[in-house]
Amino acid sequence: MDAIISAIALINSGEVRYTPVDGIPALKQAIIRYTEDFYGRRVTPQHVIASSGAKQAIMVALQALVNPQEEVIFPAPYWVSYPEMVKLCGGVPVPVLAEDAVFTPDCGISNRSSLPTPR
After folding, report:
1. Single pTM value for the model
2. Fewer CB under 10 Å: which end of the chain, C or N?
3. By the 8 A CB rule, do 57 and 49 touch?
């Protein structure tokens, strides 16, 4: 019942609107603080994007960057939908298997010449 009352109050306030596509300023500031506290890196708000999930953010990036028939390199193991996301964007999925026990992928720097358009 509290949620209903809160929703009605918010609707009546007229403050119901779309949020900025890259995240609300307070959330972006919290992400910036977290990044500084846990990774020792300083970032600016224009370098922070808050999405509804990593898969959505990856899909948007793929849609923006991948041209038809371009190869998209990603580490394996991977989320089951990654190859299909690449295909939906017209790309060719190229999973790269880790060669060590800690799953550090080698994106084949020496073999990248064999890929016509790696992304």
Report:
1. 0.62
2. N
3. yes
